[in-house]
Write a structure and sequence with these properties.
Layout (H helix, E strand, L loop, with lengths): L1 E3 L5 H13 L4 E5 L1 H11 L8 H9 L6 E5 L16 E7 L1 H9 L5 H11 L3 E6 L6 H12 L3 E2 L15 H16 L17
Parallel strand pairs: 1-2, 1-4, 2-3, 4-5, 5-6
The structure holds flavin mononucleotide.
The site of flavin mononucleotide (FMN) has 17 residues, from helix 2 and helix 4.
Length: 200
Amino acid sequence: MVGVSGASGTPYAAAVLRALFEAGESVDLIVSRAARLTILDETGMSFRDGHWQDDLAAWLGTPPGDVRYWPAGDLAAGPSSGSYPVRGLVVVPASTAACAGIAIGLSKDLLQRAAEVSLKERRRVVVVPRETPVTRSHLEHLITLHDAGAVVLPASPGFYGAGAGASAQQLVDFVAGKVLDALGVPHTLFRRWTGELNAN
Ligand SMILES: Cc1cc2nc3c(=O)[nH]c(=O)nc-3n(C[C@H](O)[C@H](O)[C@H](O)COP(=O)(O)O)c2cc1C
């Protein structure tokens, strides 16, 4: 399951979704209300519940694979229950608000509820915060998530592999690849470290 919350970094979400589809994974997708604003701001595209198929294909730049879309306001939707079958969940990007809400069990929308449910069911949960710098309370919420079993995976791209001329997409793909590693899904999003320095 992929939850997209309203932090900057929607290209990370798009890269994770494309890679999951390429790997043949079925995806349950939740896009928070605030994420519609960040998608609009960062891509110029609308993301509407009623047109999610077209909007998702336009956002990803490719027809999506096997996806089930859940409106974030639908707290009665399948993912609100632990009995709904989900192997793992990633919140990418994860707003500080989403991290806080999941950490304290606020469940203010389906994204937060689904994440909380995945934690209580001891499923694989990955959160990808982007905010910088951070306050003590941001850090405390991330520690709470870590202690509840989540992988806290900040959107901090590594520059090795792609080198000094790394493109923005390569840096995005680095973070997306780390997410897929954490979910246990194979990918070719970045070149793995082989122990050989890239000395020119
Ligand atoms: C254009 C834009 C960029 C934002 N960037 C961030 C961000 O990088 N990190 C963050 O934590 N919140 C960011 N916010 C604020 C969140 O959207 C806001 O806290 C919202 O309540 C998050 O709700 P959600 O967690 O339900 O998506 C941004 C908001 C907008 C409109």
